[in-house]
């Protein structure tokens, strides 16, 4: 009994996929079904695909999907069916249009910004040594003298053995 | 200028923090709901259907039975706790304010639904019985309660998820209902 419980505890985290059996007319449809439930998002849940969701609506949509597939509908028709009812939200890979443009373009834009910033930083680093050179050169004679004195004093201190 | 640059990360942080603070507080007020999805149905005509009437299964209801009036279409079920909360307000809307409400009895059992209407009052002009959630699917319903507003041409103008109460009515429904009425009058006058 104890071992059985332990076993259950071990396997339960993996048992997230919903077990439902549908009969398919052919193997291709079965594969398409699995591909679709993997890529369609449950409209009730914030981030779960139809495969992983136990929500009643996900169950309905799986049933509907099965019906559409067996009906001989094309992939495009099925996607259209889902989007018509639940919007682009149901697609984990939304189609490109005005509404989803931000989703598609944002990564590229951020990458571009990153590259620009990187280039700017590198450019600055290249010119940086010359800036510091001119800085030290711009010390006037008084300051130079003080600097020398300080360095000399530091050297002297170092040479002194600690009593 | 150089000084100012030092503060850029702080400024960026404050902006982001403010953004999240506002979002979280709006979720707290119920003003913003991350589960709220824009309905794909808005500004399209209400989906076609052919389903029995809850009260009298021999009557088949169709899309055209809902067209002609500005109305609410309320998706409800006896298994839905929020529908209990909402029901009293729907009664009030129907009797006191004279709002036309059509019901979609969603994935429910007819005897339970009929008993509910008898016990709690019936705010619905008619009830579409949708035991399999077929119509619900075409409407893009994700759960009950949900309420749709249709205009006099039968076009869906708003979808609202969750129970209606006084606040929600004042804020979301009232302005739209007034707008739709003036639209109807403008079109009726032509």
Automatic annotation (TrEMBL), chain A:
CcmH/CycL/Ccl2/NrfF N-terminal domain location: 6-151
Gene Ontology, cellular component aspect: plasma membrane
Coiled-coil residues: none
GO molecular function, one term: metal ion binding
TM segment ranges: 101-122
GO BP of this protein: cytochrome complex assembly
Pfam families documented for this protein: CcmH
Keywords, alphabetical: Cytochrome c-type biogenesis, Heme, Iron, Membrane, Metal-binding, Signal, Transmembrane, Transmembrane helix
Record-linked InterPro entries: C-type_cytochrome_biogenesis, CcmH/CycL/Ccl2/NrfF_N, CcmH/CycL/NrfF/Ccl2_sf
Segment forming the signal sequence: 1-17
CDD domains found in the cross-reference section: CcmH_N
Family according to the record: Belongs to the CcmH/CycL/Ccl2/NrfF family.
Function as written in the Swiss-Prot or TrEMBL entry: Possible subunit of a heme lyase.
Official protein name in the record: Cytochrome c-type biogenesis protein
Source organism of this protein record: Oceanicoccus sagamiensis
TrEMBL record, chain B:
Cited Pfam families: Redoxin
Stored CDD domains: TlpA_like_DsbE
Bilayer topology annotation: Single-pass membrane protein
Keyword terms of this UniProt record: Cytochrome c-type biogenesis, Disulfide bond, Membrane, Redox-active center, Transmembrane, Transmembrane helix
GO terms for cellular component: outer membrane-bounded periplasmic space; plasma membrane
UniProt subcellular location: Cell inner membrane
InterPro entries in alphabetical order: Periplasmic_diS_OxRdtase_DsbE, Redoxin, Thioredoxin-like_sf, Thioredoxin_CS, Thioredoxin_domain, Thioredoxin_ResA/DsbE_sf
Molecular function as annotated in GO: disulfide oxidoreductase activity
Membrane-crossing residue ranges in chain numbering: 6-24
Descriptive protein name: Thiol:disulfide interchange protein
